[in-house]
Amino acid sequence: MTELKLARLPDRNPVKLAIAVMPDLHSALLDYAAIYAERYGQQEALPELIPAMLETFIASDRGFAKAREAMRSDQSRK
After folding, report:
1. What is the pLDDT of residues 65-75, one digit of tens each?
2. Helical H runs in 10-45?
3. What is d(CA 48, CA 6) in angstroms, rounded to the nearest whole number?
4. Would you tell me how many other CB atoms lie within 10 Å of the CB of residue 69?
5. How far apart are CA 52 and CA 7, in angstroms?
């Protein structure tokens, strides 16, 4: 079989989650969306912003990255 430089693309089917948040967090999220719209001149709905916010948070959490790598390393040895 021919080798390609591009690896097989990962699963890109979104997974729908339903969550409940406390009123204070909801208020903060609405404020964030308003500030985002002011800053970038484009309104985005919370369901569009929240996944991007979570991805940014997780990508910046170095402790999580280390622990996740260790967990995956341990799993691959089994």
Report:
1. 999 999 999 88
2. 23-40
3. 28
4. 10
5. 24
